């Protein structure tokens, strides 16, 4: 919450950290195919945690007064409830990871607000917008086969350095309002042309992704900007802005046509994949739409049985097998890891994992920011609305829609982007109180943040290192990896199966029991234990 006062044209260390983090969280990926999505999320979480920790420490060190806003109390209460929920979670390792993402997001929000209030809003927003275009480019490189790399996953192309086409598309959809804002208000023609090219690339990536959640989120935020900005806000009356918006619409249309016309290397099963995705947006009678409804219903039952604290942050996959229904596509009993790591909705995950009070607090925080920005948009009918306020509402609207259909805010890259961009844009809100902590209290706050952030970052480092050690599949190296990362179900179950095949049930049982402790409702650990019992 700390903020450094004073205007300066020189980049601050906190700004540089946030700018670097925005780029690195997009590019971070590892070539360890055995670990599937973990090879993307683990290293991106490490970037998120380290970036948030360093930015928070730098912002706190520079702060002399603490400015408190209404939304700060809501976020702090949400984090406190999440911490209590973590203490009671079945799988503490998963809960700590999920809590770390939330804490890092809040730290980025407060750090970005401090950086913006120190006069560096534009530099931070440009870096965030650039990271969105960069993310789209990684997907396009894979889609058009410009060069090959082990960092890209072939299973969910064109995901680029996200490993999943939906994850890439989510970030692009969330970043569209910011891209539009910066391009429309560009002071130089060269900057406007660069922004226009970025929007065209983003549109190509969005179309090729076939991510219906991202399509809906992008449509929602663009419709809001058109209605509230161009029509109700009368921005269309501004001749210069009208010309720029028309050119940007042309760039977006060109991107759409290029995506449909240019041959790519994506092996879709349908002869009309993009039309099929478009017509299937509202289809909940079959396919993924029906699967989502089944999963939502089962997740709602989980939330009803744990209404106060939920099942623990990140613990949805631990408990979901107990709630699955016959024919549930969210569960595959033949797979070693039979569920996805997250449910197909941020909001269902929040309800089931952290309980109704935490859900209400986070929604209230988002609503507070949204209504404040919207009130400023509608505040003075004689003046056009500020583009920053329109962008806040459009970004949170896109988040609301995309998060209703997929996991978004629980993932490191979109979490980094959303918390940071909203913190920067909402920096002009009115504070409710200013505090001047004593030097001793200030030092204790810095030490507390350093200690907690350091523990979470160290945990992320051990996960990444263990993954690298276990990547070659040798049992001795995997045993070392299991000691480094005792919370890795994937490593423990792999070792259990390896030792069982080698006839060493004494070793297999130990890892199978550890895997069962982590995920007591998964069938694979029990299968190893049953096989070992039969060998006696």
Assembly level: single chain
Count of alpha and pi helical runs = 19
Mean pLDDT: 90
Strand order of the largest sheet: 1-2-3
Overall outline: globular
Q: What is the total number of structural domains?
A: 2
Q: Span from first to last CA? A: 60 Å
Number of strands: 3
Sheet with the most strands, sense and barrel status:
3 strands, antiparallel
Order of helices and strands: EHHEHHHHHHHHHHHHEHHHHH
Radius of gyration: 24 Å
Portion of residues in helices?
55-70%
- Could you list the spans in which at least 5 consecutive residues all have pLDDT below 50? 1-8
Strand composition percent: under 5%
The SS-based structural class is mainly alpha
Provide an overview of this structure.
A 3-stranded antiparallel sheet has the order 1-2-3. Mean pLDDT is 90; it is low at 1-8. It has 2 domains: 2-439, no CATH class; 474-536, Serine Threonine Protein Phosphatase 5, Tetratricopeptide repeat, CATH 1.25.40. 70% of the residues lie in helices and 2% in strands. With 536 residues, it is mainly α. It starts with a strand and ends with a helix. The chain is built from 19 helices and 3 strands.
Features:
536 residues, mainly alpha, Serine Threonine Protein Phosphatase 5, Tetratricopeptide repeat, three-stranded antiparallel β-sheet, 19 helices, 3 strands, 70% helix, globular
Short description:
With 536 residues, the chain is mainly alpha-helical.
Fold topology:
Elements: E1 2-3, H1 13-27, H2 38-62, E2 65-68, H3 70-87, H4 92-144, H5 165-184, H6 189-209, H7 212-232, H8 239-261, H9 273-279, H10 287-305, H11 316-319, H12 346-378, H13 387-405, H14 412-425, E3 433-435, H15 439-470, H16 475-484, H17 489-501, H18 505-518, H19 523-535
Helix pairs in contact: 1-2, 1-4, 1-14, 2-4, 2-14, 2-15, 3-4, 3-12, 4-5, 4-6, 4-14, 4-15, 5-6, 5-7, 5-13, 5-14, 6-8, 7-13, 10-12, 12-13, 13-14, 15-16, 16-17, 17-18, 17-19, 18-19
């Amino acid at each position: 919450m700390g903020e450094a006062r004073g205007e300066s044209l020189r980049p601050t260390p906190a700004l540089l950290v946030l700018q670097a983090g925005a780029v690195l969280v997009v590019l971070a990926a590892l070539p360890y195919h055995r670990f599937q999505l973990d090879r993307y999320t683990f290293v991106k979480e490490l970037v998120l945690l380290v970036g948030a920790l360093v930015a928070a420490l730098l912002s706190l060190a520079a702060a002399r007064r603490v400015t408190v806003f209404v939304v700060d109390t809501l976020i702090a209460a949400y984090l406190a409830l999440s911490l209590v929920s973590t203490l009671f979670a079945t799988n503490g390792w998963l809960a700590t990871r999920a809590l770390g993402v939330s804490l890092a997001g809040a730290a980025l929000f407060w750090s970005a607000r401090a950086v913006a209030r120190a006069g560096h809003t534009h530099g931070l927003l440009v870096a965030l917008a650039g990271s969105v275009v960069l993310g789209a480019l990684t997907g396009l490189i894979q889609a058009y086969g410009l060069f090959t790399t082990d960092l890209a996953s072939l299973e969910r192309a064109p995901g680029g350095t996200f490993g999943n086409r939906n994850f890439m598309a989510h970030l692009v959809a969330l970043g569209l309002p910011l891209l539009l804002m910066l391009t429309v208000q560009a002071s130089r023609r060269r900057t406007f042309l660069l922004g226009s090219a970025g929007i065209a690339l983003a549109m190509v990536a969005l179309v090729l992704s076939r991510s219906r959640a991202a399509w809906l989120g992008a449509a929602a935020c663009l419709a809001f900007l058109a209605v509230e900005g161009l029509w109700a806000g009368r921005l269309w009356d501004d001749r210069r802005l009208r010309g720029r918006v028309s050119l940007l619409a042309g760039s977006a249309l060109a991107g759409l046509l290029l995506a449909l016309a240019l041959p790519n290397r994506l092996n879709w099963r349908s002869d009309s994949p993009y039309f099929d995705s478009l017509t299937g947006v509202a289809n909940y009678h079959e396919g993924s739409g029906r699967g989502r409804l089944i999963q939502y219903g089962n997740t709602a039952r989980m939330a009803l049985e744990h209404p106060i604290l939920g099942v623990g942050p990140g613990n949805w996959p631990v408990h979901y097998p107990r709630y699955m229904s016959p024919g549930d596509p969210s569960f595959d009993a033949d797979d070693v890891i039979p569920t996805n790591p997250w449910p197909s909705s941020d909001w269902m995950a929040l309800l089931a994992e952290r309980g109704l009070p935490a859900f209400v607090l986070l929604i209230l925080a988002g609503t507070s920011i949204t209504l404040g920005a919207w009130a400023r948009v509608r505040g003075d009918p004689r003046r056009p609305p500020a583009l920053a306020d329109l962008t806040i509402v459009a970004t949170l609207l896109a988040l609301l829609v995309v998060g209703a259909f997929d996991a978004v805010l629980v993932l490191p890259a979109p979490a980094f982007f959303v918390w940071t961009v909203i913190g920067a844009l909402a920096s002009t809100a009115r504070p409710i109180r200013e505090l001047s902590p004593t030097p001793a209290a200030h030092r204790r706050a810095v030490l507390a943040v350093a200690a907690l952030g350091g523990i979470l970052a160290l945990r992320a480092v051990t996960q990444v290192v263990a993954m690298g050690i276990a990547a070659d599949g040798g049992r001795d190296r995997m045993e070392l990896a299991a000691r480094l990362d005792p919370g890795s179900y994937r490593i423990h179950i792999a070792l259990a199966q390896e030792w069982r095949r080698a006839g060493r049930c004494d070793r297999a049982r130990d890892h199978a029991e550890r895997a069962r402790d982590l995920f007591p409702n998964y069938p694979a650990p029990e299968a190893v234990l049953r096989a070992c019992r039969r060998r006696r």
